[in-house]
Amino acid sequence: FGSSFLEVRASGVHKGTARAMLQDVFGERLMGCEPTWYQGFPSAYYNDSHRAFRKKCRDFVETEMKPHADEWIKSPEGYPVSLHAKAY
Questions:
Q1: What percent of the chain stands above pLDDT 70?
Q2: Is residue 17 a contact partner of residue 41, using CB atoms and an 8 Å limit?
Q3: Which of 11, 16, 41, 83 satisfies CB 3.0 to 4.6 Å to 36 for a cystine?
Q4: In angstroms, rounded to a whole number, what is the distance separating the alpha carbons of residues 87 and 60?
């Protein structure tokens, strides 16, 4: 599918499905490469609580881990164990 709402709609996809397809799209767009919910298609199992948890995890990695990753890799102690407590 194309990247715009009109392109997806022109392909004959239902309006609600087209909107879902264009939000939170990740991974390869090739058929069978990723789970369908990962590409924005409706799912009975994957919902807003999953998206919120994924966002929370990504935000944690961006703010608490990525800025320090290089120094942790170079350090013989590795990452601080206190990171576990922050994650929970």
A1: 59
A2: yes
A3: 41
A4: 7
pTM above 0.70, yes or no: no
Q: How far apart are CA 29 and CA 18, in angstroms?
A: 14
Provide the 3-class DSSP secondary structure of residue 22.
Answer: coil
Count Cα atoms within 13 angstroms, Cβ side, for 80. 9
pLDDT tens by residue, 27-58: 666 766 777 777 667 777 778 888 889 889 98
Separation between Cα atoms, residue 16 and residue 23, nearest integer Å: 11
Q: Residue 73: which pLDDT band, with cuts at 50, 70 and 90?
A: very high
Q: Are 5 and 25 in contact (CB under 8 A)?
A: no
Determine the residue type at 72: W
- Please check whether residue 42 is in contact with residue 18, taking contact to mean a CB–CB distance below 8 angstroms: no
